[in-house]
Amino acid sequence: MRAVRLTVTAAATAAALTALSACTAKSDAKDGDAIEVTAADSTCETSAKSVPAGQVTLKIQNKGSKATEVEILFPDDRIVSEKENIGPGTKYTLTAEVKAGSYEIACRPGMKGRGVRQKLTVTGGGTAAKRDPKLDKAVADYRQYAQGQADETLPLVETFVKAVKAGDVDAAKKAYAPSRLGWERTEPVAESFGDIDPKVDFRKPDVDAGQKWTGWHRLEQALWEQKKVGDEEKTLADQLLTDLKDWQKRVGTAEITPTSMANGAKELLDEVATGKVTGEEEYYSHTDLVDFKGNVEGAQKAYELLKPVAGKNDPALVGRLDKQFTALNALLDKYRSDKTSYEFVSYDKVGKEERKELSDAVNALAEPLSKLAATVVK
């Protein structure tokens, strides 16, 4: 789950136009140069408004007082690449691949709303340089993996929805966490569409005033806090299934590149660090460790597909990543009945020191994983 932009109302459009006026575009970037992005609480300054097609690098600095998110967006708000949770006073380098066309760079202070945006034109007829054929295979295999996860998720969601509609709280609770695994493994792909994630995976704090709360977590609240489901929840269960069928159909249209795979793997670790380790994601059910495992599995799948090229370009990085993935998976195994089961300890039973140990393991993996995107496109 992440805080994602919402469908724009007339009022929001006016606000977005005001935000755009706060953006500052400077000179065009030269081939190979990075775009400097300076984010603040109400501004988003970029050092270029035009770059050649191919690899583009954003060197981001957050000078604001809030954590921010920086995205490269298609005109229809689909996400090319992004970095969430860039803390005040911190920097981050984001590498992506872009084809010729029109885009926007968005800074989203507080990681809410449409944010402050700057237009970006990408010139040229396609990617600027040839890439290793192994990367094309990695992309094809990852697309197949993402589609497979969506296809396998739908029957599990149908089981969950059937239990909700039958008013069988115990059966619905049992089906809840398994129904989310495929989504958690491939969440960056789902989020790239922009409009599905708010419908199915928003937590209560992510919902803006006037926005209807729908999706998994709304039903989670009913099952664990209210301990019952009414007509509204049954309708919401049907809507969840409809929205996830939409996701299933659209996975094949997602824009996937080697860098989006690598950045997506890092995003999944960020999801763990900001939601699962803290216990905020599954606030009512405490099934956070199931989501945690799904995120790690998804990140590891993307990494394994990119590993042949990454290993050729930076063997030391691959060695570190192999070691940290092994360590994190071994630590997670301590909290489940066996290595093939997705029955984990309820997260409210995991103590402060144990949570810190999990957090440290995530951070130890996230640091080298942040270098994967730049490594595979060397």
Layout: helices, strands, pairs:
Elements (H helix, E strand, L loop, with lengths): L9 H11 L3 E2 L9 E5 L4 E3 L3 E3 L1 E9 L5 E6 L5 E8 L4 E8 L2 E7 L8 E8 L9 H33 L3 H8 L4 H5 L1 H5 L5 H4 L15 H11 L4 H20 L7 H19 L11 H26 L1 H19 L18 H18 L2 H5 L2
Parallel strand pairs: 1-3, 2-5, 4-10
Antiparallel strand pairs: 2-3, 5-8, 6-7, 6-9, 9-10
Helix pairs in contact: 2-3, 2-8, 2-10, 3-7, 7-8, 9-10, 9-12, 10-11, 11-12
Using brief descriptors, characterize the structure shown.
single chain; A middle domain of Talin 1; alpha/beta; 378 residues
Describe the structure.
The protein is of the alpha/beta class. The protein folds into 2 domains: 10-123, Immunoglobulin-like (Sandwich), CATH 2.60.40.420; 133-376, Up-down Bundle (A middle domain of Talin 1), CATH 1.20.1420.20. It has helices at 10-20, 133-165, 169-176, 181-185, 187-191, 197-200, 216-226, 231-250, 258-276, 288-313, 315-333, 352-369, 372-376; strands at 24-25, 35-39, 44-46, 50-52, 54-62, 68-73, 79-86, 91-98, 101-107, 116-123. A 5-stranded mixed sheet has the order 1-3-2-5-8. The protein has a 5-stranded mixed sheet with strand order 4-10-9-6-7. Helix 10 runs antiparallel to helix 11.
